[in-house]
Structure formats: C-alpha cells, structure tokens
Design a protein that fits this description.
The protein has about 200 residues and is of the alpha+beta class. It has helices spanning about 1-10, 55-60, 65-70, 90-100, 105-125, 125-135, 140-150, 150-165, 190-205, and strands spanning about 35, 45-50, 75-85, 175-180, 180-185. Helices cover about 50% and strands about 15% of the residues.
C-alpha cells in the first residue's frame, strides 16, 4: 500500500490536495469525457464526481440507475461524466485510470464496481487489492493494471482535466450536477430533484 500511494501522489504534488473535499457542498463535453445516451438528446446532464467521494458512491448506487433508466436509456438525456479528485486522491486517480484502461465500452461498469466496493476499500484499507480485483474482472492482468496506474502521461492528463474543472468551471464539490450548462445541485441529488430540474429545462425549450 505505501508504494501504491507513493507512486500516485505525483497527482497530488501539483496542488490537487488543495481542492475541496466531497463532503462540501461549464459542463461542455469534450473528447476526453465519458458519456452515455444520445448526443442529440435535448437535455444535457453533466456530473462532476470523484471515485473516492462517498456522496458520489451513494448517488451512483442508489439514484443513478433510476435516472439512467428513466432519462438516458429512453433518449431524453445525454449524460456526461467528468472526473474530479478528492482525498485520498491516489485512490480516485487509480480508479479513473483503471476505468479508462479497461476501455470506453467498460468505463462505466468499472467505475460502478469501484463505487460499490468503495466502503470495502475504506473499511479494509486494501485500496490496491480491491482495485486490482475490479481491474481483473474487466479483463485486465495485474501487469496491465500496474502499468495503467503508474502511467505518468495519463496521470498528467487526468490532472489537467481536474484543474480545468476547478479553475475554469468553478467546481469545488462532488458530486456537482449541471443541466444544459446550468448548475442545479451540489451534493447528492434525488430522483425527484432530477424530475423537477429536467421538467424545468424542457419547459424552456
């Protein structure tokens, strides 16, 4: 575990630890973002989240499946996930790198597995072991996993995305949600809140 943390703390060295944590309270899609749904859908939802944020995990596990089924899978919403880093940043970074290394088609399933295993990671302290298990379940070998989470170019690219979100898009809390470019919620959002916000966005069309 110490070696795992040390290798990934290169991410923190460029100032990410100064960013707000997930307990505290833009949105244009680019080629580096992960998306779901029809790009031509009239409603665009953007979520800024961290793989190490407990509130993000709660939303992912308890609310997002309903949002996805009701709005994304039906073609009403195009969803964009933007990566952010909250402490412990080495865990969040490793999780995002692993999800990307698994491939775009597996990104969301890997991230979902990480969110579902988050409590186990924090309870046992076995961050690397559990991330490796998730990686292997997606088809990666341990050698591929080790290379993935120590890829300095990928770490720098991740850091650049997070810095842009913090500085240019004024993101300071996770999760943060935007609908059609307008921030509507910082912190966990309920399905009812999404229903109301999406209805309001539709009414403006």
């Amino acid at each position: 575990m110490p070696n795992f943390s040390r290798r990934l703390l290169v991410v923190a060295a460029v100032g990410l630890l100064a960013l707000a944590g997930c307990s505290k309270g833009g949105g244009a899609t680019n080629a580096d973002d992960m998306t779901l749904g029809d790009p031509k859908a009239p409603i665009k939802i953007t979520e800024y989240a961290s793989a190490s944020c407990t509130h993000c995990a709660t939303f992912n596990n308890n609310v997002f499946p309903a949002v996805k089924a009701k709005y994304i899978d039906t073609g009403k919403v195009h969803y964009t996930f933007k990566e952010f880093l909250t402490p412990p940043v080495e865990v969040a970074a490793a999780a995002f790198l692993t999800a990307r290394c698994a491939g775009k088609d597996k990104y969301f399933s890997v991230l979902d597995a990480v969110f579902h295993a988050q409590e186990e990671m924090f309870t046992t302290g076995d961050m690397r072991g559990i991330l490796l298990r998730v990686a292997q379940s997606s088809g990666m070998t341990e050698q591929q996993f080790n290379a993935c989470i120590t890829d300095e170019a990928a770490l720098k690219a991740l850091n650049a995305r997070v810095e842009k979100a913090a500085k240019e898009e004024k993101i300071s809390a996770t999760p943060t949600f935007m609908i059609n470019g307008v921030k509507f919620k910082e912190g966990e959002a309920t399905l009812a809140e999404f229903d109301a916000a999406i209805a309001a966005a539709e009414a403006k069309k």
